[in-house]
Design goal:
Length: about 200
């Protein structure tokens, strides 16, 4: 895979940030529709016994699809545990159990369960991850911090199923820039449901 310069990635980030904003603004129910598709996919995986451990969610930044309402459903109705990422502000990230305890701001200023111990990869069944864009081969375009990339390129984390969550308007038909360490995602969730990435 070819490494792209940061200026090219920055331009793409702006393009897809705008595209995501316009998609969500144009259709007020879009967030709820994407969340409903995520709910259906999680229930399907639960029925198939694919969710034996924690489900990694995320605390949404402005413009990201908000999946936080799913936590209580997963815990109370399906008996699952959930986790949130916690970044240290220096490039490292862990997942920690998301309980009813108050969240605190992590090293990037995002609410996280900092009082909980870090989970191992073996304690996670699935990661749901926000993005600005994803291409059909599962290459994700994030914000440039590299937190998810660094975690997922670790051998013990690389095998954990991970899906991108975003509007279908942010699925790129052209290949996105990637670096040698990038780990493709297994698919994405949009208002049109679950889509598996191409081989």
């Amino acid at each position: 895979m070819q490494a792209f310069d940061e200026a090219s990635k920055a331009n793409l980030r702006q393009v897809f940030r705008t595209r995501r904003f316009l998609a969500l603004e144009a259709e007020p129910t879009l967030q709820a529709r994407i969340r409903d598709q995520a709910r259906q996919e999680l229930r399907r995986r639960h029925r198939d016994d694919d969710l034996r451990h924690s489900v990694g969610l995320y605390w949404p930044l402005p413009g990201e699809v908000d999946l936080t309402p799913l936590r209580l459903e997963l815990v109370n109705e399906l008996g699952l545990s959930t986790a949130l990422p916690a970044a240290d502000g220096h490039g490292n990230m862990t997942y920690r159990t998301w309980s009813a305890a108050p969240l605190k701001k992590d090293g990037c200023g995002i609410p996280a369960p900092l009082d909980q111990p870090a989970l191992s990869a073996e304690q996670i069944s699935l990661l749901l991850v926000p993005a600005l864009a994803v291409d059909r081969k599962g290459i994700r375009l994030g914000y440039g911090g590299g937190y998810y990339d660094r975690l997922r390129c670790l051998e013990r984390w690389s095998g954990i199923p991970a899906l991108v969550v975003l509007p279908s308007a942010c699925v790129s038909v052209q290949a996105l820039p990637s670096d040698p360490w990038d780990q493709p995602f297994q698919g994405w969730l949009s208002e049109n449901g679950f889509h598996q990435t191409l081989p």
